[in-house]
Design a protein that fits this description.
Strands 1-6-2-3-4-5 form a 6-stranded antiparallel beta sheet. It has a single domain, classed as endopeptidase fold (from Nostoc punctiforme) (Alpha-Beta Complex), CATH 3.90.1720. Strand 2 and strand 3 form a beta hairpin. The N terminus is likely disordered. It is an alpha+beta fold and 156 residues long. Helix content is 25%, strand content 35%. Helix 2 packs across helix 3.
Length: 156
């Protein structure tokens, strides 16, 4: 009986995690393209200009607004190359004894690297860190204290 339960759990785990192992081809292309733009200004330097650039380059289907593909559900894996839209986000985190807050009233970024279920590296422009040039920053979802975000999977 214990063996059957173990094998069932192993199968379920393998099925769930196996789905997250394979990066979609379009996402691979997007990650490669945005990496080539590090420290450069894309378009007018607005945050959505970077998303527009990569989506047009890979011939993705999108609404030319703020819907950058298929909106993911909370049960789906997040991949590098997915696009994230922030709305009225407030982030709060500690470094040592200091507490920091940041806000993103309306911002678009691309997930450049998935660290774990809670942390990603974003690649984006029009930020307080890099100005209107493309740069990276870390985001821990657990530090978001208010607002909403939507993650989109680019598709043909």
């Amino acid at each position: 009986m214990k063996t059957a339960i173990f094998l069932s759990l192993l199968f379920i785990s393998t099925s769930i995690f196996g789905q997250c192992d394979s990066l979609p081809p379009m996402n691979k292309e997007i990650v490669k393209l945005v990496g080539l733009k590090l420290n450069k200004k894309v378009g007018t330097g607005e945050c959505w200009d970077l998303a527009k650039y990569v989506l047009d380059e890979v011939d993705a289907k999108w609404d030319w607004g703020l819907t950058y593909g298929r909106k993911l559900t909370s049960s789906e894996c997040i991949y590098e190359g997915d696009i994230i839209q922030f709305e009225k986000i407030k982030i709060k985190y500690k470094k040592g004894k200091d507490v920091f807050t940041e806000s993103m009233p309306h911002h678009t970024a691309i997930i450049y690297k998935v660290i774990n279920d809670d942390e990603v590296t974003l690649i984006h422009q029009n930020t307080g860190y890099t100005g209107r040039k493309v740069g990276t920053s870390s985001l821990k979802f657990s530090t978001i204290v208010s607002g909403k975000y939507y993650i989109y999977r680019p598709e043909h």
